[in-house]
Design brief:
Blueprint lengths: L12 E5 L3 E6 L9 E6 L7 H11 L1 H5 L3 E7 L3 H8 L15 E3 L4 H5 L3 E7 L5 E9 L1 E6 L5 E7 L7 H17 L18 H10 L1
Parallel strand pairs: 3-4, 4-5
Antiparallel strand pairs: 1-2, 1-5, 3-8, 6-7, 8-9
């Protein structure tokens, strides 16, 4: 079930901040009324596609920050695993240099509440609790506005990496809509023409494009 248009699930969990400090209680609530948030899940620490995405977000961090947007990552690994990976140089498969928070969802409840857990719990034929699927998160990405409402979500399967530039485009679109009250058509980018959400507005846009 999509979370778009709904409040993002609330959580408090350990996280690593600034690439070096473990905090025991991290929450997205700190951004409400202050910043939009890109909250993204990745499957596992010390893997292959994941570091390319995490480092790509870091490379574009200044672009998000100048738009007033916070980046927060999460996986089902422990905070100690996050810290070890953050302390490992990039030439050895690590993500050293990443400064935005990375949340430790060891209970898997955050991934489950956001609808990105790649499996679920069930009872087997002996009546014992078991897990069907993989106990890790899909590559879920959520754009959350300043009220704490999810405005966009994308969920990729495990082998499919994200396009970070597309997330910047979506941030630009959301901020344009909120500032100007217009809507953004297909393939809209910053600096391009938007349109009024009326029949006349659509007709005018189509005639000009």
């Amino acid at each position: 079930m999509s979370l778009v248009g709904k409040k993002a699930p609330i959580f408090n969990a350990p996280a690593v901040i600034n690439g070096e400090e473990i905090v025991e209680s991290f929450s997205l609530d700190q951004y409400i009324g202050k910043k939009e948030v890109i909250f993204f899940f990745y499957p596992k620490d010390f893997t292959f596609v994941c570091p390319t995405e995490i480092l790509a977000f870091q490379e574009k961090l200044a672009e998000f920050e100048k738009r007033g947007v916070a980046i927060v990552g999460a996986s089902t690994d422990t905070e100690e695993s996050h810290l070890a990976w953050l302390s490992t140089p990039k030439n050895k498969g690590g993500i050293e240099g990443v400064t935005y928070p990375i949340v430790a969802d060891t209970s898997k409840t955050i991934a489950s509440n956001f609808g990105v857990l790649a499996g679920d719990w069930d009872y087997n034929e002996d009546g014992n609790l078991s897990f069907n699927g993989l106990p890790i998160a899909y590559r879920g990405t959520f754009l959350i506005d300043k009220t704490g409402t999810v405005r966009q979500e994308t969920i990729n399967d495990l082998p499919l990496g994200r396009n970070i530039d597309e997330m910047i485009r979506l941030v630009d679109a959301l901020q344009y809509v909120e500032k100007h009250g217009e809507v953004c058509p297909a393939n809209w980018e910053e600096g391009k023409e938007a349109m009024k959400a009326t029949k006349a507005g659509v007709a005018e846009y189509l005639s000009n494009n």
